[in-house]
Amino acid sequence: MLLSTYGSRGDVEPLVALAVQLRALGAEARVCAPPDEAFAQRLADVGVPLVPVGPSARKLTQAAPGPSSLPQRAAALIAAQFEAVAEAAEGCDVLVATGVLPAAAGALSVAEMLGIASVSVTFQQLTLPSPHRPPLAYPGRPFPPEVTDNRVLWDLDARSVNALFGEALNTNRVANGLPPVDDVRDYVVGGRPWLATDPVLDPWRETPGLDVVQTGAWLLPDERPLPDELVAFLDAGTPPVYVGFGSMPMHASADVAQVAVEAVRAQGRRAVVARGWADLDLIDDQDDCFLVGEVSHRALFGRVAAVVHHGGAGTTMAAARAGAPQVVVPQATDQPYWAGRVAELGVGAAHDGPTPAFESLSAALGTALARETRARATVVADAIRTDGAAVAAKLLLDAISRPRKTSQGQTPLTA
User: Fold this and answer.
1) Is 285 exposed, middle or buried (0-12, 13-18, 19+ CB in 10 A)?
2) Alpha carbon 227 to chain centroid, angstroms
C-alpha cells in the first residue's frame, strides 16, 4: 500500500495511523509526504518508511507565498508526484491519495498510469461537492457576493480548480501517456470518495451522485508517555489550559503567546504552551506556565482544563476524544468549519476571527471553562468512534480483489 499526501501535520498523522493498522493486518505500507524532519521522525517511530515528495511543508507555510504563485507552486508539486510517487508506487497494489488537491490529482494520475487501484480520501468534508453547504474559496479567487446558491458556487469552484491546476495536471498526464481530464476536481473526488472523519464531529448528509464512505477518523493508539518534567508540572496544581496552534505560523498574531497566557491567568488557570510552527515561547519565568514541543495529545489533553487551538481536524478530534473543552481560533481553510462544529456541539467556543485579543479570548475561555461545557464534552467524548483506521485498513484489504474501471481510466476501490 502506498499512502500519498502533501500538507501539514494534520495531513500526515492520519496516514501514520492507517499504516500501523495495515501492518497489523499483514500488509506493507509506505508513505509519500513532505520531507519535513518531524514527519520523517513520526513515521520512523512506528517503523514506516517515508518517501519524500515536494518542498518542506513547514518552510512553505512559514514563507506564506502570495495567491498569485499558487498555479506555479501547484505545477511543481504535480510534477513531483509524477516523479516521486511513480517510483514509490512500483509493485504496490493500492494507492491512497489525500492532501492538497493538486497533489492528490497527481498521485491518482500515477496510480492510473501504473494500473493500480486507488482511493481518494479527505479528512474534512468541505472538499466534497454538496448542495447543503458552499465550497471554500481559493486565495485570490473569491466568489461573487451576490451568488448564494450552493450548486452555482460549486460550479464556480470547479472552474477555479481547472483554471489553477488543469494545465499543469494535463501537461504531466499527456507527457506520461494519459489522456487529459476535463474536470480536475471531479477527477480527484470521483464517485466514491472516502471521508476519514468521525460521524459525530463531522456528520455527512447524503448527496445525490456522491457515494461517500465515512470510515471514522484515523487515529493512532498513541501510548507515548508524557515527559517527566511535564508530568511533574501537571501534578503540581490544578489542570492547566493548553495553548497551541499546530502547523499555523500565526503571522497575523505576533503576540499570541502573550495574549493567550494573560487570558488564561485571568481565569485563574495555569498554562501549557506548545511551541508548534508559530515558535511560541513562554512570556516570563513564572512557574505557572510550561513549554512543550512534540508530545502525545492523547496523554496530555485528558489532563487539561481546556484546549486553545487553531481548529485543525486532528487537534479538534483529539480534544473531543479526550473530553476536553475547546476554544478554536481558526486561521484558514477548514478551520472555521471545525470551530463552528465545536460551538454547535456545545463542547467549546468558536473565536470570532483569526487574531485573538485579551478580551475576546477571555470571553471564549469563559465559555469553555464553564461546568456545562465540560459536561457536554464528556458526553460527546463517549460517542466518538476510535476504530476509523482499522475500518479503513480492512476495507482496503477486502477491496483489492474487486477493482472496477471508470470512464476516465482510474481503478478505484469498491468498499
Assistant:
1) exposed
2) 26
Whether the pLDDT of residue 413 is over 90: the answer is no
Average pLDDT on 143-160 reads 97
Percent of the chain, pLDDT > 70?
Answer: 96
Phi then psi for 160, rounded to 5 degrees? -60, -45
C-alpha cell at 47: 517503523
Counting every residue, how long is the chain? 415
Do residues 98 and 118 lie in contact, with contact meaning Cβ atoms separated by under 8 Å? no
> What string of H, E and C letters represents the secondary structure of the chain?
CEEECCCCHHHHHHHHHHHHHHHHCCCCCEEEECCCHHHHHHHHHCCCCEEECCCCHHHHHHHCCCHHHHHHHHHHHHHHHHHHHHHHHCCCCEEEECCCHHHHHHHHHHHHHHCCEEEEEECCHHHCCCCCCCCCCECCECCCCCCCCHHHHHHHHHHHHHHHHHHHHHHHHHHCCCCCCCCHHHHHHCCCCEECCCCCCCCCCCECCECCEECCCCCCCCCCCCCHHHHHHHHCCCCCEEECCCCCCCCCCCCHHHHHHHHHHHCCCCEEEECCCCCCCCCCCCCCEEEECCCCHHHHHCCCCEEEECCCHHHHHHHHHHCCCEEECCCCCCHHHHHHHHHHHCCEEECCCCCCCHHHHHHHHHHHCCHHHHHHHHHHHHHCCCCHHHHHHHHHHHHCCCCCCCCCCCCECCC
pLDDT at 407: 44
Q: Summarize pLDDT for 253-262 with one digit per residue, the tens.
A: 989 999 999 9
239 within 8 A of 305, measured Cβ to Cβ: yes
| C-alpha dihedral, 363 to 368 to 373 to 379, nearest 10° | 150
Range 391-395 average pLDDT = 97
What number is the average pLDDT over the span 132-153? 95
